Amino acid sequence: MANKGFFADHQFTLLVTLFHIIFITLFGFFGKYTAEALPNDLIQTPELINSKYPLFQDVHVMIFVGFGFLMTFLRRYGFSAVSVNLLLAAFTIEWGILVRGFTSEQFSEYGYFTISIDQLLTADFAAAVVLITMGALLGKLSPTQYLLVAFIETPAALITEHFIVHNLGVCKKF
User: Fold this and answer.
1) Record's superkingdom (predicted)?
2) Burial letters for 86-105: b for 16+ Cβ neighbours within 10 Å, e otherwise?
3) For residues 14 and 157, what is the distance between their CA atoms, to the nearest angstrom?
4) H or E, element range at 31
5) What is the pLDDT of residue 2?
6) What DSSP element (H or E) covers 123?
7) Please, are residues 89 and 67 in contact by the beta-carbon 8 Å criterion?
C-alpha cells in the first residue's frame, strides 16, 4: 500500500486538534461565566437550578445517550455510531456556544460573551440538529467529513433558530 503522506494519514487527528486549540483560545479570550455560574457564596439562585437545570439535564442525556444508542440498531455501524455521536455532540456544543457568543449583542457591545446554562441548552439543540443529520448519513461519511458537516451545519442551525424565535415569534425564550 502506497504512503499517502502525513496529512492524509492523520487528517482527522490534525483537524480535531486544530479545532480544539482554536476553541480553547477563543473561550479563554472571549468567554466569561455569568454571575450565577461563578463559585460565590453570596449568590444563591435555587430558582435557576430548579427551573433550568432539569431541562438542561434532560436534553443533555438525550444528546449523549439517546442519540448515541439509538443509532446502534445498525449491526455494522453500531460502534462507530456511538463514537461519532460523542465526538459530534461535544464538538457541536463547543462550536455552538462560540458561534452564538460571537453573534450576540453582548459581544458586539462589550467584546466578550457569557457562558450560561441558557447557552449550553441552545448549543444542545444545535447538537441535536447535527446528530439528526448524522443519523441520515450514518455509514456514508468518514469522521473527518462528519466533523466538517458539524462545522458548517451548526451556524446554519443557530441562524435558523434565531430567525424562527426572533422574527417569527414561534416560541418564547426558555
Assistant:
1) Eukaryota
2) ebbbebbbbbbbbbbbeeee
3) 26
4) strand 31-33
5) 57
6) helix 117-136
7) yes
Distance, in Å, from the CA atom of 98 to the CA atom of 101, rounded to the nearest integer, reads 5
pLDDT score for 47: 72
Per-residue cell: 26: 477563543
Closest CA to 84 of 23, 157, 140: 140
Q: What is the pLDDT of residues 60-83, one digit of tens each?
A: 999 999 988 888 877 787 778 888
Low-confidence ranges of the chain (pLDDT < 50): none
Please state whether beta strands 113-115 and 31-33 pair in parallel, antiparallel, or not at all (unpaired).
Answer: parallel
Contact 18, 30 (CB under 8 A): no
Q: What is the pLDDT of residue 146?
A: 94
